Amino acid sequence: MKYKIVKLSKENDLNRELRKQKREKGEISILFVSPWDKYCTALMEKLEKKYDSNVKGGKPLYIVDNYNMPHSFVIFKSSVLPHLVTIKRNKVISEDYLPMVYKNLDLE
To answer: Are 94 and 80 in contact (CB under 8 A)?
Structure first.
């Protein structure tokens, strides 16, 4: 699956996307990262290498960092980073085990 990387910088942006997903019943993926964690920075480098930000037609992957948006981590009870949350219709799939995050993002 192709992803289009979208970095969010405000809490309102994430809330807008979550409301849109709830209204349209679509699929949304959110990746919670920290700019100071070595595993998160390695994951971000691989993501940026594989999925160019100019890709059209890819499913959006929203990147949320704990420096700019600390309160958004409370929504999905993120305590371990990186943390991938996928919402499909009314089902929330939360993954914080690093090998599974890589597998779900097709980075193996």
So the answer is: no
Sequence-distant (≥ 6) Cβ neighbours of residue 93 within 8 angstroms: 85, 86, 87
CA distance 30 to 93: 10
Instruction: Report the C-alpha gap between 108 and 46 in whole angstroms.
Output: 10
CA 5 to chain centre: 9
Beta strand pairing status for 59-65 and 27-33? parallel
CA–CA gap between residue 76 and residue 70 (Å, rounded): 12
CA distance 16 to 60: 14
pTM: 0.93
**Cβ atoms of residues 100 and 49 within 8 Å:** no
- Give CA 47 to chain center in angstroms: 11
Residue 54 has phi, psi (to 5 degrees) of -95, 10
Q: Model confidence over 23-80: pLDDT tens digits?
A: 999 899 999 999 999 999 999 999 999 987 666 778 899 999 988 898 888 888 888 9
